[in-house]
Amino acid sequence: MEKMNAMGEEAGRKRVAWTRWVRRIVVVLILAAAVDGILIEPYWIEVTHETIQGEVSAPLKIAELSDIHARRIGPREEKMFAILEAEKPDLIVVTGDTMGNTHGDYSIAREVYVRLHAPLGVWVVKGNWENHKAIRGEHAFYQEAGVHLLVNQSASVRPDVWLVGLDDAYTGTARLEPAMAGVPKGVYTIALFHSPGYFDTIAGRVNLCLAGHTHGGQIRIPFLRPLWLPRGCGRYVEGWYEEKGTKMYVTRGIGTSVVPIRFFCRPELAFLTIEPEKQAGESRASD
Fold this sequence. Notes:
This protein is of the alpha/beta class and 287 residues long. The chain has eight helices and twelve strands. The chain has helices spanning 2-40, 75-87, 106-113, 128-132, 138-144, 176-180, 199-202, 280-286, and strands at residues 46-54, 60-65, 91-95, 122-125, 148-149, 153-158, 161-165, 188-192, 208-211, 239-243, 246-250, 268-276. The strands form two sheets. It has a six-stranded mixed sheet with strand order 1-12-2-3-4-5. The protein has a six-stranded mixed sheet with strand order 6-7-8-9-11-10. Helix 2 links the parallel strand 2 and strand 3 (91-95). The longest helix is centred in the first third of the chain and has 39 residues, at 2-40. It is globular, with a radius of gyration of 24 Å. It starts with a helix and ends with a helix. 38% of the residues are buried.
C-alpha cells in the first residue's frame, strides 16, 4: 500500500511539473506573438512584384499603396518612402484610406502625399475613412498636395493607358457610367477603387482593377480564412482575382485599422508591371 501511495504521489508531482511547463510554453508563445504582432510585423513591409501582359505600347510599372492609415510620419511611413525611392515606379496609385482612424487627419495625409512622386503622377481614390471625414474643397486639397484625386472620373496617364477612379462603393456612391464616359475604346483601362467587393459590378468593363480595404485580414491564423474582414470586401481577401476577362489585384495595404496589430499578415507595398503582349511571331522567335 505504501508503495502504491508513493507511486501515486510521484505521478502527481510529474503531472504538476508537466502542467507548469505547458503553462510556461503557452505564456512564452503568447508573449512572442504579442511582440511579433505589435512591434515587428506591422513595420515589416513586404515588397511584392507582379507582372502581367496587356495591350500597352511599353512596359508600365505601377506602385499600389492602400490603407496607409497615417497617424504620423513614423518608421513604417519612412520605410515606405524609401522603398518607393529605390523601386522608381512610373506611376503611383493610392486606393484609399491614407488617413488614420480616429487619430488621423488631413494634415498628416498631406505630409504623405507631398512625399510621393512618379513620372506619370500620383493618383488617388477615396476610401471609407476619407468619406467618413469628408472636407469641403477636397479637390483643391489634393491638388495643393501634388496628387490627382479621381471621384467617378477618368484620366489618361499615357495615350494607351487610362485610369478610372471610383468613389468607395461601401461608404460613398460609385458611378461607373459617368466615370467611363470619356475613356476611348481600345485603350488599356485600369480601375481604382477601395472596397474590392465592387469587382462583381465592374468585371468585364475594364482590363485591370486595383483595390485594398481588406488589410489581408490583418490578424490571421495560418491556413485559415481571416477571422474578420470589413464590410465591402465581399469574397475577396488579397492577391489576384479574375472574372469576365478582367483581373483584379487586392493589396494587404500598409497600415493597421481598429487595433495596431498584424499577425501572419505583413503590410504590403505592391509593384505591378504591365508588359506589352507578345505577338505570335515574337513568341515563335523567342522559343
